[in-house]
Amino acid sequence: MANLLPSLREKKRYLVFEVIGNASCSDAVSSVKNSFSGLFGSLEAANADVSNIKSSGNKCMVRIGRKYVDKVKASMAIVKRINNSTIILRSIGVSGSLKRASKYFNGG
User: Fold this and answer.
1) Ramachandran region, residue 86 (left: φ > 0; alpha: ψ -120 to 50; beta: rest)
2) Residue 100 covered by a domain
3) The CATH number of the domain where 89 resides is what?
4) pTM of the predicted model, to two decimals?
């Protein structure tokens, strides 16, 4: 199978967010995926391609499709409880490059 040309590939965005409360990043990402699927359907969830890239402490970085950034943020606002503990998911920054997203991730 041949690789796609860069002009034909789906553009990605990197979203860095913080988990305020007692929950891990993997639980938070799976909760965001579930709320996204509930809000917009499984077809949109598959097209958004939300995947965990990096997590450290209470900060998480996910890769998403460029057209779905606002929808993922709306899904983050819906998530209020994980494992019977109240949490808040706070967006820190969105970037088109992994290098800039790492600066958000590291606090820069």
Assistant:
1) beta
2) no
3) 3.30.70.3250
4) 0.89
